[in-house]
Amino acid sequence: MPLRPRSPHGPAEGLSRRAFLAATGAGALALSGCGTGFGLRGSDGSASREGRLSFTLWAGEAELTAFQTIAEQWTATSGVPVVFNVVPFGEALTGIDANLASDRAPDLFRVTYQDIGIYAAGGALLDLTDRLPGGFLDGFGEAFVSAVRSEGRVFGVPHHTDTSLVLYDTEALQAAGARLPTSLDDAWTWEEFRSVAASLPTGESQYAFGVNWQLAGAYRWLNWVDQRGGRLLTDDLTAPAIDSRAARDALALTQSFFTEGLVPPTTSTKGSYVDELFTAGTIGMVFAGDFLLPTIDPEFTGSGRSYGATFLPRDETASADLGGNAVVATSQSVNAEAAADFLAFLSGDEAQALFCEQAVVLPTRTSLLGQTLDYAVRPDLMELFVEQATTITPGLSAQVTVPQFNAVNASLVDRLEQAFLGGDDPAQVLEDLAADVEGRLS
Amino acid sequence: MTTAAPAAVTAPVPDPPRSRTGRSGAWRESAAAWGLLSPNLLVFGVFLLLPLIATVWLSLYSSSGFGPREFVGADNYTELAGDSTFWRSALNTGVYALLTVPLSLVLGLGVALAINKPLRGRGFLRAVYYVPYVISGVVIAIAGRWIFNENVGVVNRLLRSVGMDGIAWQSDGTAAMVSLVLISVWTKVGFCMVVYLAGLQSIPAEYLEAAQMDGAGRWSRLWYVVVPLLKPTTVFLVVLGVIESFQVFDIVYVLTGGGPGNSTEMLVTYAYAEGFDARRQGYAATIGVVTYLVIAVLTALWWRRQKATEAEQ
Fold this sequence. Notes:
The structure holds 2 protein chains of 2 kinds. Chain A has 2 domains: 50-162 and 323-389, D-Maltodextrin-Binding Protein, domain 2 (3-Layer(aba) Sandwich), CATH 3.40.190; 164-320 and 404-441, Periplasmic binding protein-like II (D-Maltodextrin-Binding Protein, domain 2, 3-Layer(aba) Sandwich), CATH 3.40.190.10. In chain A, 46% of the residues lie in helices and 12% in strands. Chain A has helices at 17-46, 61-78, 89-101, 113-121, 142-148, 170-176, 190-199, 222-227, 245-259, 275-279, 293-302, 336-346, 349-359, 366-369, 379-389, 394-399, 405-420, 426-441; strands at residues 53-57, 82-86, 108-112, 149-150, 153-154, 157-162, 164-169, 207-210, 283-289, 307-310, 323-329. In chain A, a hairpin with a 2-residue loop joins strand 4 (149-150) and strand 5. In chain A, helix 17 (405-420) packs antiparallel against helix 18 (426-441). Chain B has 2 domains: 21-58, no CATH class; 86-312, Orthogonal Bundle (MetI-like fold), CATH 1.10.3720. In chain B, strand 1 (61-62) and strand 2 form a beta hairpin. Chain B starts with 19 loop residues before the first helix and ends with a helix. The chains are: A alpha/beta, B mainly alpha. Chain A binds chain B through residues 94, 97-98, 100-101, 118-119, 121-124, 204-205, 215, 264-266, 268, 270-272, 277, 280, 282, 406-407, 409-410, 414, 417-418, 421-422, 440, and chain B through 64-68, 85, 149-152, 156, 160, 165-166, 168, 170-171, 257-262, 273-274, 276-280.
């Protein structure tokens, strides 16, 4: 029965309703096939399964090459291939959380020291205490061992560390006639640092320096507290200790950087990262991690400028931030033995030296701290970073690796911004921060 | 505006057949209806209803998203009631809606009126205005960051080049909100323009001609004829705009990150920060549930208003 005359024009000519439905049905099936294929590919790339190790990580080009070289060496002896699933830093842990929740976690993943605690507390990590070779962790600095340990158990290997130095535009500092410290003991005091900063030119879109305490880096503000002898948490890590004289002094000092126009107002804890402002010449000094040298160096050398580095300012003591990453295995791994074996290999002397040299990051193994590694970028400055890393204190490391630190850091971001940009009274800000931290810990 | 009622149907309507064939036909019709509805119901159930139920369920727990979760009952809701950041976010969202919706509507109507006449390159102009609406919000916000960057942005450079002070787009709360509103309006004007164009083209030319014959000028025709006849379109755009404003995320996340302080924190960005930065997914789900309820109330109001408008016609 003809329903309606067929159109005399257009591509639909000759296409019956049945043919149309069949075509769209086939199309839908094809699309669903694509969906299934995509899902399977995603699962295949990241989930743990027998016969190989899956490793989810974020990595720059040099880092990935180093990881691959080390993995190939391990595979040559173990016979187990390592499959890398590289994701952007900002999405890495969100993806890991989703995979853990859906029982599709990889065997291994890269994680910041500040994030280990919550995964360990949630039972997401493989307990490596009895799986690593005897005495293996004795070869690492105390602060790093503290960062991968939770309630006496070991949940990862301290793969590498980063810390900050003050990088400076050589011409700007020379013009200001500033003294440049050459040893840790000789580092600028707080007052001296402020005086040097004040002597640098400032004005419309020109500032003295920038500090790397934005967003997930807000914990770096705790360096100042530690340098004054203060603490974020009590010794037993169960309650806030931030509402203290030392923290008030630290906050008053850092708040003055904003009120006196020494730092760009856009670089508060919710603001933009500072390294780009340094290479653009907007700031004369920047607090920056060693891992930024491969980015900063070509910008400076390309524009014919030069830069140097000196140690972080110190007060009662010197103190530096615990940066860098651990590598952990998940409790969902079906290759627990192989995963533990790979982690031990990855963080052994030889592999760690190779990784640090290629990726321009700092070692965590004490045996490497005394050696001169062949860094690809500015090995002269990397020596200073290594020296500064010796001031990463176990006490501060333990505070920034508690399971609730994500939430605590989020409070730091909010409260510090109130002081920096809102101009709120430091005492009130710290009282509020202490209340926040108490809530987060509970 | 009134329309003639359809003529009453006077022809006798035969009783529906009660035969075996009739019941079978009714069953077949019903099956066909369910068959046609089922794809939509399936999508609705899997992608909307189930997540909604799961979100309400999650809001009763303390959870990091993995590992053990703890039932906390209404504790998350109690905490939310006393959470100053939540209330600030709610206020910001309201202010954002109050600023973006009227501005988008007025500008959208203005552009639609300008384009609703024979004009060379009309299609191109329509596309120019509409393109921001279909571009990813993240791309728009990244462009916004370069336009409004306090140190090196286009706007401040222009201001400084003519001897004026730059505006503190990132370090002043009001300026940050203004930058968000400007970017948001830029994206929404195109959509409002397209909807208003459709509305304008449905207005009979005789009405405007009659008004002109009665001596009404351009503004009088616009104010007393066009705007009232566009009322259903305006109601639709207002409610859609408010709902979209309560869901805003990408522009805020990329452009201001909710700062400075909490000046531009919105309900959804706050939920994200709690859920993924602080890993308090139960609490984030609570914010989601409350936001959902607010949007549901607004939708119900829109529905009632729409019914009332239809009844008036």
